[in-house]
Amino acid sequence: MATTGADILPMHAQSTINKLPLVRRLEAVGFRAWPASSVQYDGSWQIRLTAGHPSKRLNSVVPLDPSDHRDLEIRLAKAQRKFEAYGRPMVVRETPLASPKLIDLLREHGWTCFDETIVMTANLVDLELPDMLDHLPSHDVGRFVDASLVVDQADPALKPALAEVVSGIKPPSGLFVIEDAEAGPLATTLCVQDNDLAGVMSVAVSPQHRRKGLGVEILTSALRWARMRSAKTAWLQVSADNAPALALYVRFGFREAYRYCYWQPPRAA
């Protein structure tokens, strides 16, 4: 099923919609579902750093109060030094909680916006899930990490860092893997239940096994597991330009809650 304009709003339109309480709650559970190794605060800015993993969600400045716009240039310079100490490029993550004055400053200084992402939610209580093979979650972090790296075709050197991130998740989590005896891992997903919210952190299918229903199968298993544990709302994050994933999630009843993007400084000449 294709997405429509009613399903996904342009980022600028969200400024007119009062969704800040929902955004704050989803940001909070998102931080717990994908924990950075170092979290520091400068006012309402959360500075997330993880030396071993390059994920932008684990290495970014995340402003959390639209009214916090004091000493912007001084604070950006301080944050830059922290990122340099970790050997990470500095990025600022813009959600509806970011101060408009901060975003204006970044734009004026030549920063560029990239990687727009849609945060979506679905009502699990009334959701009709497909009747198909159910996969039980694993608690073997090593097995899940190995499978994820294979399915994502990621650098095997990331295994220790990814294992540290997954092991650091405090809320109950289900590690889902679909694999074949000959072909190996085919699909993976991670579902984190935080009270009545369940976060689907990724739905990954091996490139050579896509369009075979594996995404539907593993997402169904994760959502069924979350609902059995009394979660009432599911949430996930997806790249705004990932049309196949968006179509899959809309089929499952997911609708846009808000968007975020990243800002990076201009490269030195």
Automatic annotation (TrEMBL):
This is Acetyltransferase (GNAT) family protein. One of its GO terms (molecular function) is acyltransferase activity, transferring groups other than amino-acyl groups. Keywords: Acyltransferase, Transferase. The keyword Ribonucleoprotein does not apply. It holds the Pfam family Rv0428c_C. The keyword Transferase applies. The lineage of its organism: Bacteria, Pseudomonadati, Pseudomonadota, Alphaproteobacteria, Hyphomicrobiales. InterPro entries: Acyl_CoA_acyltransferase (IPR016181), Bact_Acetyltransf (IPR050832), GNAT_dom (IPR000182), Rv0428c-like_C (IPR056935). It comes from Rhizobium hainanense. CDD domains: NAT_SF. Residues 127-269 form the N-acetyltransferase domain.
